Amino acid sequence: MELKTNAALIIIDQQKGILEPRLGRRNNPQAEARILELLDLWRRTGRPVIHVQHLSRSPESVFWPQQSGVEFQERFQPLAGEQLIQKQVPDAFCATGLEARLREAGIDQLVIVGVATHNSVESTARTAGNLGFDTWVAEDACFTFDKADYFGNAHSAEDVHAMSLGNLQGEYATVVRCAQILMTAVNL
Question: SUPFAM superfamilies annotated for this entry (predicted)?
Answer without folding.
Answer: Isochorismatase-like hydrolases
